[in-house]
Amino acid sequence: MSLRLGDTAPDFEQESSEGTIRFHEWLGDGWGVLFSHPADFTPVCTTELGLTAKLKDEFAKRNVKAIALSVDAVDSHTQWIEDINQTQGCTVNFPIIADQDRKVSELYDMIHPNSDSSLTVRSLFVIDPNKKVRLTITYPASTGRNFNEVLRVIDSLQMTDDHKVATPGNWEKGGDVVIVPSLQDEDEIRKRFPKGYNAVRPYLRMTPDPSVNWGGE
Asked: Which ranges of the chain have pLDDT less than 50?
């Protein structure tokens, strides 16, 4: 059965390019992004791993660790990392899991027989500090991931966890957000959203991003 949003991300122990990974222990109390690749030395994935390395500071700002997976061996990963660093102008700074026995691939339902009977599909999971799956995206082999979108969703998840809001379509950090319909007490609304709100409709109340620092404004 495939993982659903809100499920606990399966724990596992597996070798990687940075030694043995005990997944939940490795995640600690932060957020995680686990993303898979069909095999080493694949062109689209080479660009993705380079992008991930370059976004290390952005992930760190959000208390997020990135970890990749491929069904090839650690030795192959090590050689591939050299290629990634050289071709993408980066330094890979996160582990790549060596999933030769497909243990993790099976736990996370990354083998889709109608796509390929042996290679992992290109799936991505965002996992929160409670080890819950908060986002899943599966891409076709021909389309590279948009890591700016991954960061955008993490911004939304972290902000909406802390405030009684949801984020509208195409939202980016700093943009107006939606007050959740369940919040109806006006005193609580004024306390939570001191900049007020615009009631476009009774169910559609827009307010400035409450996670933005108001200092000096």
From this structure: 115, 117-118, 214-217
Q: How far apart are the first and last CA of the chain?
A: 50
Question: Of 3, 15, 8, which Cα lies nearest the Cα of 101?
Answer: 15
Q: Please give the CATH number for the structural domain made up of 13-143.
A: 3.40.30.10
45 part of the active site? yes
CA distance 61 to 33: 14
Provide the pLDDT for residue 154. Answer: 97
* Tokens describing residue 30: 């932060």
How is residue 120 annotated by DSSP?
Answer: B
Note if the pTM is more than 0.85.
yes
Catalytic residue among 21, 45, 159, 178: 45
Beta-ladder partners of 70: 37, 98
Q: Where are the chain's structural domains?
A: 13-143, 163-207
